[in-house]
From TrEMBL:
The keyword Nucleotidyltransferase does not apply. Gene3D superfamilies: 1.10.1530.10, Hypothetical oxidoreductase yiak, domain 2. Keywords: Oxidoreductase. The keyword Lipoprotein does not apply. This is Ldh family oxidoreductase. Belongs to the LDH2/MDH2 oxidoreductase family.
Amino acid sequence: MSVFEAQETVALSIEEVFALSRRVLTGAGLSAPHAEAVARVITAGERDECASHGLYRLPGCVMTIRSGKLSPDAEPVITDASPALVRADAGHGYSLLAFERAAPLLAEKARAVGVAALVINNCFHFSALWPEIEQLTGMGVAALAMTPSHSWVAPAGGRRGLLGTNPIAFGWPRPGPHPYVFDFATSAIARGDMALHDIAGKPIPEGWGVDAVGRSTTNAREALDGAMLTFGGHKGSALSTMIELMAGPLIGDLTSRESMVFDDGAKAAPMHGELILAFDPAVMGGGDAEANAARAEALFAAFADQGARLPSQRRYEARTRSLARGVRTPKVLYDQILALGF
Ligand code: NDP
Ligand code: PYC
């Protein structure tokens, strides 16, 4: 349920969400290719009712562009680094254009070798990972993506920000339009969602964060000013640390702590790297690809047999609704976006 459930809303078509996003982003100075790549992902977030990574992100994008740290017209440099490695230097632009331009080569390599990696370096990153995962499953490969953020999250046993909210997302291609996809922060909740609780004046559950002196809090503002906590205690903490390492030093890029130092109080989006792995089940499965795919489908069917739902099912249902009827966005957010003046 949205934290803005009872609030006044504005009705927008999907086309209007994209046009508004593009207008604001180009108005703030982003080049057309970047603005369109970012607007596509913001529109997808709004369409799938992912409030923390939809239109809510536009004011933050404008703040990032105005910080002077982001290169608004950076041309991603894509390198065919080895038979199984694509490297994309985003040149301090947003990650999304680099991903879009490099993804076809990543999938091609996975199909040739079985498993391949895309390393994106020097990118500003604010987006959910599932749009990228869905692009890859649409090319017939399974995919795993991860990225650090800023050091807002305390490790298990600690009380101060050190790790990022570090999302990890996985996708498995399926027949039909809806792949199996999960995508979550390794913090108990994404920071964007925590901020939405703060804006709506809603309490947060115990276990999401601690205040500035390390006491457990149910006040979102206090947790934002203190430290967020990982999901699953030491397990989320270790998974988050793996993401720091795999999408940080392993790929020659910044950790969340180093991203925060780079930010230097500008409150821009995190700047670091992203690691995306792609797997071709037809190559890796060795034998009968159809039989292997059918076994995966039997696993998914067994969820429904006991009344469980698959991750992304809520999103796909929201997508169907939005494509038919458009979206409703909180008026307070819509007015804030118009007040940016673009
Ligand atoms: P949630 O905890 O809301 O959901 C995470 C995943 O779990 C989704 O795939 C969701 O599917 C699935 N899920 C939720 N409830 C169930 C259920 N009952 N049964 C099965 N599956 C379920 O997300 P987070 O707050 O952790 O993250 C939100 C977003 O924030 C992510 O998209 C992430 O990429 C993004 N993010 C980005 C960061 C960045 O640095 N770029 C940093 C941190 C987060 P469904 O959507 O269908 O409910
Ligand atoms: O919601 O945690 C988050 C987040 C960080 C960077 C982009 N989104």
